[in-house]
């Protein structure tokens, strides 16, 4: 059942203010259990429009739930997508301020830099690679607005898939110059290894993940555009961090990306 007009905008304000005020809130489906996935994507669109009104600019996409393990955990068979805006981009040399977050976690990802528009409902990983100028190592910082990072699929879609910030490393390579489907990855915190993984965890191949998003957007007459940045999905589980922590993600061939979090004083 679709939620009624007016309720969508109320939910947008609810999630928008939770993010602005770095405040965790009760999940939307506690109040609106009938929230469908279509409703949730519509709310997500309006949430981004709300941010655009405040000056944010859409610069690309992010994929979530791209590993079989995470899909099983959520009891779903599909990935999800959300949007990236320019104010989410963080820089390796500028420490993050923990007070800007609620309960953040870092995920290792591979970013795609797109050089040609791509739209359709039968798009393949090969099509995605053809329009990709560079791939680069990336970290996504997810920070669900929901209490204890707990939600249903509809909740997390409405919350723009827990997006918060992202960083891109300095080594940008053509996807033609590496085996993107089998890149090893090590993620460490303060010098200690916390996660290892392979890019194969991302729907078998990160380009297949991007193709999934293009096809999903194609169902509603949308696509990806020249200049878009796309985070293709997590290569391992996310790890949480606190003030004074430094996270480093190292990919075989593709290099590394890192950030530190300021001290709390
Ligand atoms: O980017 C992600 O993989 C996160 C998607 C939403 C699920 C979560 O917040 O863990
Ligand atoms: Mg992610």
Question: Tally the helices: what do you get?
Answer: 7
Q: Total number of β-strand segments?
A: 13
Low-pLDDT residue spans: none
Number of domains: 1
Overall shape: it is globular
CATH C-level class is Alpha Beta
The biggest beta sheet is recorded as:
7 strands, mixed
Mean pLDDT: 96
Through-space gap between termini: 48 Å
Describe the secondary-structure layout.
Layout: H1 7-20, H2 28-31, H3 37-53, E1 58-64, H4 68-74, E2 80-85, E3 105-114, E4 118-119, H5 125-130, E5 132-142, H6 153-158, E6 163-168, E7 184-189, E8 192-198, H7 206-218, E9 223-224, E10 229-234, E11 239-240, E12 246-251, E13 255-260
Parallel strand pairs: 1-10
Antiparallel strand pairs: 1-2, 3-5, 3-10, 3-11, 4-9, 5-6, 7-8, 7-12, 12-13
Bound molecules: hexanedioic acid (0L1) and magnesium ion (MG).
Hexanedioic acid is lined by residues 62, 64-65, 107, 140, 142, 144, 156, 161-162, 234.
If you had to describe this structure to a student in words, what would you say it looks like?
The chain is α+β, with helices and mostly antiparallel strands and 265 residues long. It has a single domain (5-91, 104-176, 201-235), classed as Alpha-Beta Complex (Fumarylacetoacetate hydrolase, domain 2). It contains 7 helices and 13 strands. The strands form 3 sheets. Strands 1, 2, 3, 5, 6, 10 and 11 form a 7-stranded mixed beta sheet that branches. Strands 8-7-12-13 form a 4-stranded antiparallel beta sheet, with no helix packed on it. Helix 1 (7-20) crosses helix 3 (37-53). The longest helix is centred in the first third of the chain and has 17 residues, at 37-53. The model has no long low-confidence stretch (mean pLDDT 96). Residues 62, 64-65, 107, 140, 142, 144, 156, 161-162, 234 line the site of hexanedioic acid.
């Amino acid at each position: 059942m679709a939620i009624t007009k007016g309720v969508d905008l109320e939910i947008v304000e609810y999630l928008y203010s939770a993010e602005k005020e770095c405040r965790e809130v009760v999940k939307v489906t506690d109040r609106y259990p009938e929230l469908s996935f279509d409703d949730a994507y519509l709310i997500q669109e309006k949430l981004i429009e709300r941010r655009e009104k405040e000056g944010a600019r859409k610069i690309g996409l992010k994929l979530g739930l791209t590993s079989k393990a995470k899909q099983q955990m959520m009891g779903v068979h599909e990935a999800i997508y959300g949007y990236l805006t320019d104010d989410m981009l963080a820089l390796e040399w500028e420490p993050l301020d923990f007070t800007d977050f609620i309960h953040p976690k870092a995920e290792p990802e591979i970013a795609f830099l797109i050089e040609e528009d791509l739209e359709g409902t039968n798009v393949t990983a090969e099509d995605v690679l053809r329009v990709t100028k560079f791939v680069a190592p990336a970290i996504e910082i997810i920070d669900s607005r929901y209490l204890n990072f707990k939600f249903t699929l509809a909740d997390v879609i409405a919350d723009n898939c827990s997006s918060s910030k992202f960083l891109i490393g300095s080594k940008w390579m053509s996807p033609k110059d590496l085996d993107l489907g089998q890149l090893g990855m090590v993620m460490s915190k303060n010098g200690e290894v916390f996660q290892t993984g392979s890019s194969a965890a991302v729907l078998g191949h990160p380009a297949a993940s991007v193709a999934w998003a293009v096809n999903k957007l194609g169902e509603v007459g949308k696509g990806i555009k020249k200049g878009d940045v796309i985070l293709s999905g997590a290569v391992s589980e996310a790890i949480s961090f606190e003030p004074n922590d430094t996270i480093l993600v190292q990919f075989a061939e593709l290099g590394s990306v890192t950030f530190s979090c300021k001290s709390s004083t």
